[in-house]
Amino acid sequence: MSTATADFAHTRHAETNRQRKANALAAAAANLGLQPYELKVIGSTAVEAEQRRRVRRTAGLDRDPSVETWMLALGYLEARAAGLPGARQCTACGAFVLQVVTEHDQRLLIDPYPHATGTVWPVAAPAGRRSGKSARVLAGHDERPDDQPLYRQHTASCPAAPPRPRSRSRAALCGECGLPLDQVLAERDPTYTTHPKCDPREEVRPP
Ligand SMILES: [Zn+2]
Ligand SMILES: [Zn+2]
After folding, report:
1. Superkingdom of the source (predicted)?
2. Has residue 164 been placed in a domain?
3. Looking at the structure, do residues 141 and 173 belong to the same domain, yes or no?
4. How far, in Å, is the centroid of ligand 1 from the Cα of 195?
5. Where are the alpha helices (DSSP H) in the chain?
6. What spacing in Å lies between the alpha carbon of 169 and ligand 1's midpoint?
7. Measured in angstroms, how far is the CA atom of residue 199 from the centroid of ligand 2?
8. How far, in Å, CA of 164 to CA of 169, rounded?
9. Do 122 and 64 have their domain in common?
């Protein structure tokens, strides 16, 4: 065997090995219901690094794979989700998600794989409804069905989702137009419930 042939065989073996590991990592991440952006390889946070350790252990790899192997794995993970029937991209972050319709006819984006903290599970669409995928959303008091796959709402994991509003004081909205009021005024003055220009009483007042 010439040196060139030996080198080629070695390179090909390494490449096959990397693909095998990347496939195992992608399968493990999908099993854990994780999205590629939760496993960031470069400039990752402590949380993302810990998620990757979980994925690596689930994949049965005892050493941390190279950055190249991780990048390949995240590519495989994204391609898997993109290939699911009905997959679409989140307009905010570009991740592949699925759309379901709740019992209350609300459209909901969910992450592509079930997750330990999921609250949405697919159910058979009611007869006569055109939309394909129907789903039920678990309320706080509902018992978690342990025999059902539970998916996360995509907004729970979307890296581009707006930060959740502070729970303490909900933003006060104008009673007429529904748009936010001046929050400082609303907190001080309980009678300030509409924008002055929206208030119908304002019109009959003499100039
Ligand atoms: Zn998103
Ligand atoms: Zn208004």
Report:
1. Bacteria
2. no
3. no
4. 33
5. 3-31, 46-58, 67-82, 154-157, 183-188, 200-204
6. 26
7. 7
8. 12
9. no
How open is the CA angle 110-116-117, to the nearest 5 degrees? 60
Domain contains 202:
yes
Residues 146 and 107 in one domain: yes
**Centroid of ligand 1 to alpha carbon of 88 (angstroms):** 11
Same structural domain, 75 and 95: no
Q: Does residue 95 belong to any structural domain of this protein?
A: yes
Which ligand has an atom closest to residue 179 CA?
2
The rounded Å distance from CA 194 to ligand 2 centre is 5
Domain that holds residue 20: 3-82
Within this chain, do residues 50 and 78 fall inside the same structural domain, yes or no? yes
Render each residue's pLDDT in the chain as its tens digit; 207 residues.
566 677 877 889 999 999 999 999 999 999 999 999 999 999 889 999 999 999 999 999 999 999 999 999 999 999 999 999 999 999 999 999 999 988 888 899 999 999 999 999 988 766 665 555 788 898 878 888 888 899 999 998 999 977 655 444 567 888 888 888 888 888 777 788 888 888 776 555 455
* Ligand 1 centroid distance, CA of 129 (Å): 27
Alpha-carbon distances, residue 164 vs 14, 17, 158, 170, 171 (angstroms): 45, 43, 12, 11, 12
